[in-house]
């Protein structure tokens, strides 16, 4: 641990405390090294596979922002704290850790009585002195963390112990503050350990939910795979993509060669073999976990079958029943036909056919908070991308909540926000204000919390597809007077799990093409979570780069739906029967995709070597702020065409209506050469390196730059009721409205004329 006091004189008491902390930390660090060594030795003899002692320790780091502190930590009060979490992979042992801390603190703090504590799992790892000489100035400190404090699941907390006077003080005085930069970096040194060959541990070690980094998992084919083998690989990659979730996933591919280090998925069909990998004679479809011969700490998950059909059955067994597997190898005897998915029933998407309870979206314990200023309750929501929001008042939220009423308060409230956009403040009345309601007071006699209900409408047009419902209880801090101000932690707030959110009034209807919903949700392919109405068209003579792009995009689909692509079809351009009545995802690199020549009239772009052609609209002048709630306002149709030669762009994405079936969609992912397909798939995953997102109907990717060139909506997918569709059609086409009005007036006039004439004749006849 490194502490800097800049020569500031400290009281003897403080020096003694710091000296003891230094001494204890030194002893703890030595004990930690012994504990790690003992743990490794114990694991080697019990559960872990025996492995040689290695010198290949590695290190990685996270900023506090990457760990979840989206804003600088603001520590306030006599005992203010904030925390983040970090986890350690199951196949690693921590040998060292340190925190490079950037911080600032109040000049009013008393140096003898104030400090910043670093806690790991509620254990004090270090204390930082706060000398007056450096107050109010940004500081940096590197703090060593004893490794024995770090477990599999960890909470890193920073706590301010602050005092500004030796007399009675206000525990929430404005001078009691410290700010921790979220650019502070946690560095962790680890040593790998070898896990046993046990399928019961799947998805470990190929995916570890404790690892917050991007998942990079190689796939190995013995030879160039056929379509069924690619379908099997796509099911596995989408499964891992669903597991990786927000982390993102990419899947590099090699043919006939194992990776030099780490883990990999190996797919073997028939007599195919991979150099260095020895398996028992293939007696049928099997799933085997073995060590990587190139790395004693790496693992290989081998899917094998006599042919590609058996291989696909093994893949389906893995993604649908991995929880039932055990041992180092299993034979797959039978896989029952999976039930087909229904539209919009993806596990990750909010149900749109019924009200959904908040308890289905988040654990009940996370709906409970405590304290005067508790943290925000966040309920993650993923919306179906094609909800039709025209003339809809909003999404009904029936909110039930309980709270502890204060004796006296004026501003206590429950704040409701959507993705950091404030929506409404709900008052939390005090006991004083509840005196007039005898029933509420009687309820408080039996329970110290008060139950409230309210109805809210969430504005769908301001909710991103990946939204967060944010609920925060805020209580008044009532001053009692000098030497009587204390903070009693007896405030509680609960959001009832049976609170409901209802999307069932919304129909599914959206203008296409729309690459924005393709990037964020994989739509329209993910409308069915198993991709049963999707065909992937692979190019001729595809290689490792094309296969990697295909698996990475399938992983992206799995991240969206939370379900593996178990019913996907892979085909080539000449398989017309397989392409009919399906949404098509087309991959191309250079001139190896015949469909691009067949459909040249539909394509707004073409990259062939150094020859490039792009259609342009005025979207290029408004690429940062072009999306409107009105679909007609989003149109940026073709105004010009540009053809150039020279250094080509990395690649492009474009969408259009399928020439083979009305209402079906085509998305093309193309690059000038196979190696640049990785730039396009990386842009689909996105991240902080990208200033813009993919939008419109044509987006060009140049390295880390994305340019959306067109937003030419040509067709619609989804269904509306006939009356609502007629309303929408007339509202957007004035000519049809005038014509229908004229016809209605004419028809009414004719009916009135004949009715009146009949009545006149009847009267004259009488």
From TrEMBL:
Residues 1-30 form the signal peptide. It is a single-pass membrane protein. PANTHER family: CYCLIC DI-GMP-BINDING PROTEIN (PTHR39083:SF1). Keywords: c-di-GMP, Cell inner membrane, Cell membrane, Cellulose biosynthesis, Membrane, Signal, Transmembrane, Transmembrane helix. Belongs to the AcsB/BcsB family. Pathway: Glycan metabolism; bacterial cellulose biosynthesis. Its main location: membrane. Binds the cellulose synthase activator, bis-(3'-5') cyclic diguanylic acid (c-di-GMP). InterPro entries: Cell_synth_B, Cell_synthase_bac. The chain crosses the membrane at residues 734-756. This is Cyclic di-GMP-binding protein. It is found in: Cell inner membrane. Tightly associated with the cellulose synthase catalytic subunit. Pfam families: BcsB. NCBIfam families: PRK11114.1-1, PRK11114.2-4.
């Amino acid at each position: 641990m490194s502490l800097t006091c800049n020569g500031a004189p400290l009281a003897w008491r403080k020096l003694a405390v710091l000296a003891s902390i230094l001494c204890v930390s030194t002893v703890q660090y030595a004990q930690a090294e012994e504990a790690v060594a003992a743990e490794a030795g114990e694991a080697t003899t019990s559960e872990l596979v025996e492995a040689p002692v290695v010198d290949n320790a590695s290190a990685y780091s996270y900023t506090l922002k990457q760990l979840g502190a989206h804003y600088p930590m603001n520590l306030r009060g006599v005992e203010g704290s904030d925390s983040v979490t970090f986890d350690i992979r199951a196949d690693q042992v921590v040998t060292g850790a340190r925190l490079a801390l950037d911080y600032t603190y109040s000049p009013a703090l008393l140096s003898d009585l104030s400090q910043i504590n670093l806690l790991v799992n509620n254990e004090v790892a270090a204390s930082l002195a706060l000398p007056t000489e450096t107050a109010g100035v940004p500081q940096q400190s590197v703090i060593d963390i004893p490794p024995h404090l770090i477990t599999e699941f960890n909470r890193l907390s920073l706590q301010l112990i602050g005092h500004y006077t030796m007399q009675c003080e206000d525990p929430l005085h404005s001078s009691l503050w410290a700010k921790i930069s979220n650019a502070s970096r946690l560095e962790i040194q680890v040593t790998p350990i070898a896990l046993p060959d046990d399928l019961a541990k799947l998805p470990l070690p190929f995916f570890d939910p404790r690892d917050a980094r991007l998942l990079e998992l190689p796939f190995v084919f013995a030879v160039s795979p056929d379509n069924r083998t690619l379908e099997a690989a796509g099911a596995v990659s989408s499964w891992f993509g669903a597991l990786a979730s927000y982390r993102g996933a990419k899947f590099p591919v090699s043919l006939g060669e194992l990776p030099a280090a780490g883990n990999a998925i190996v797919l073997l069909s028939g007599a195919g073999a991979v150099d260095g990998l020895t398996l028992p004679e293939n007696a049928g479809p099997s799933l085997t976990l073995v060590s990587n011969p190139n790395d004693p700490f790496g693992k290989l998950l081998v899917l094998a079958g006599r042919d590609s059909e058996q291989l696909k059955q093994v893949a389906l067994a893995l993604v649908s029943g991995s929880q039932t597997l055990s041992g180092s190898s299993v034979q797959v005897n039978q896989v029952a036909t999976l039930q087909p998915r229904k539209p919009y029933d993806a596990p990750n998407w909010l149900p749109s056919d019924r009200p959904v309870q908040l308890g289905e979206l988040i654990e009940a314990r996370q709906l409970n908070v405590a304290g005067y200023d508790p943290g925000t309750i966040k309920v993650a929501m993923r919306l179906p991308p094609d909800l039709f929001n025209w003339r809809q008042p909003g999404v009904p939220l029936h909110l039930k909540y309980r709270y502890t009423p204060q004796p006296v308060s004026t501003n206590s409230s429950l704040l409701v926000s959507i993705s950091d956009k404030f929506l409404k403040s709900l008052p939390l009345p005090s006991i004083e204000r509840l005196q007039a309601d005898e029933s509420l007071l009687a309820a408080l006699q039996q329970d110290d919390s008060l139950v409230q209900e309210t109805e809210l409408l969430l504005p769908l047009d301001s909710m991103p597809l990946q939204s967060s419902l944010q609920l925060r209880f805020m209580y008044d801090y009532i001053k009692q007077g000098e030497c009587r101000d204390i903070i009693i932690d007896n405030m509680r707030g609960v959001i009832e799990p049976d609170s409901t959110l209802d999307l069932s009034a919304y129909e599914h209807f959206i203008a296409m093409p729309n690459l924005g919903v393709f990037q964020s949700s994989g739509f329209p392919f993910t409308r069915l979570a198993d991709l049963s109405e999707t065909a992937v068209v692979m190019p001729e003579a595809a290689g490792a780069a094309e296969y990697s792009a295909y698996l990475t995009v399938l992983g992206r689909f799995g991240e969206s739906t939370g379900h593996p692509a178990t019913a996907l079809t892979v085909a080539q351009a000449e398989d017309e029967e397989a392409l009919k009545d399906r949404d098509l995802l087309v991959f191309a690199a250079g001139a190896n995709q015949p469909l691009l020549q067949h459909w040249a009239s539909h394509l707004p772009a073409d990259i062939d070597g150094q020859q490039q052609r792009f259609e342009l609209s005025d979207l290029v002048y408004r690429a940062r702020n072009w999306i409107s709630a009105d679909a007609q306002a989003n149109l940026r149709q073709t105004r010009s065409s540009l053809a150039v030669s020279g250094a080509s762009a990395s690649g492009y994405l474009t969408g259009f209506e399928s020439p083979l079936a009305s209402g079906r969609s085509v998305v093309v992912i193309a690059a000038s050469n196979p190696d640049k397909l990785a730039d396009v798939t990386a842009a689909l995953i996105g991240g902080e390196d990208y200033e813009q997102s993919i939008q419109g109907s044509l987006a060009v990717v140049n390295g880390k730059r994305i340019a959306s060139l067109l937003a030419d909506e040509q067709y619609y997918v989804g269904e509306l009721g006939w009356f609502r569709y007629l309303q929408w059609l007339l509202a957007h086409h004035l000519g049809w409205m005038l014509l229908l009005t004229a016809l209605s007036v004419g028809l009414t006039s004719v009916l009135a004329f004949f009715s009146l004439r009949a009545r006149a004749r009847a009267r004259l006849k009488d």
